[in-house]
């Protein structure tokens, strides 16, 4: 089964930040690095921020939450590694569900 564009983008963007923990990129830089469409890129960055895998800086760049932050989040039971399930389209919108592991 072929992955849908959102899932592919999510996997690609998360992998780029996972492999380079200190990397900080603007949304435009993420788009260029990954080849992901602007709207999907913004959705993925938003989801990765909400799940506390990434954090947005005041200058608009994104980077991974520091390891110390991960330890603090884990200590309070906060999820930080999302798994995305794409269930198709409902009314023209792609529906997704984030599970935390």
Fill in the keyword field for this structure.
single chain, 101 residues, alpha+beta, 3-stranded antiparallel β-sheet, 4 helices, 5 strands
Query: Order of strands across the biggest sheet?
Result: 1-3-2
Largest sheet: 3 strands, antiparallel
Global morphology: globular
Tell me what portion of residues adopts beta-strand conformation.
15-25%
Q: Helical content, roughly?
A: 40-55%
How large, in whole angstroms, is the Cα Rg? 14 Å
The N- to C-terminal Cα distance equals 23 Å
Describe the structure.
Helix 1 crosses helix 3 (38-50) and helix 2 (27-34) crosses helix 3 (38-50). This protein has helices at 5-19, 27-34, 38-50, 67-75, and strands at 24-25, 54-56, 62-64, 82-90, 93-100. The chain contains 4 helices and 5 strands; from the N terminus they run H-E-H-H-E-E-H-E-E. It is globular and about 30 Å long. The strands form 2 sheets. A 3-stranded antiparallel β-sheet has the order 1-3-2. Strands 4-5 form a two-stranded antiparallel sheet. By secondary structure, it is an alpha+beta fold. The chain has one domain (5-100): Arc Repressor Mutant, subunit A (Orthogonal Bundle). Helices cover 45% and strands 25% of the residues.
